[in-house]
């Protein structure tokens, strides 16, 4: 929608196909974000269970070799932002290193 299409107090709101595309796109993004958030929470739970099992077995809560492998995987798939995503996921699962 360009400035000429922007509704004012004097003009009625006209829904254009641009508006539809933005609205539909945002609905899709909102649904994807809800799925991503649910997946992140599932990952947090899985991570906590692994850590608890390792600690109960006398091991360390953190496994840096595994973390390096995960960060490498996200980096290969998504580049530099993938590293930030992997580190955020790891922090959510184990707390601050
Ligand atoms: O894979 C493991 O061994 C885990 O404990 C899970 C996890 C993770 O969240 O991915 C969490 C802590 C470890 O330092 C490494 C990885």
From TrEMBL:
Residues 16-97 form the Chorismate mutase domain. GO terms for biological process: chorismate metabolic process. Keywords: Isomerase. Pfam families: CM_2 (PF01817). The keyword Isomerase applies. Its EC number is 5.4.99.5. One of its GO terms (molecular function) is chorismate mutase activity. InterPro entries: Chorismate_II_sf, Chorismate_mutase_highGC-bac, CM_dom_sf, CM_II_prokaryot. This is Chorismate mutase.
């Amino acid at each position: 929608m360009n400035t000429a299409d922007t509704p004012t107090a004097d003009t009625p709101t006209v829904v254009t196909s641009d508006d539809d595309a933005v609205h539909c796109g945002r609905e899709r993004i909102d649904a994807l974000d809800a799925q991503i958030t649910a997946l992140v929470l599932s990952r947090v739970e899985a991570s906590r269970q692994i850590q608890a099992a390792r600690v109960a077995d006398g091991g360390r809560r953190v496994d840096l070799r595994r973390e390096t492998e995960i960060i490498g995987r996200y980096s290969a798939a998504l580049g530099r932002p993938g590293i930030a995503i992997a580190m955020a996921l790891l922090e959510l699962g184990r707390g601050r290193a």
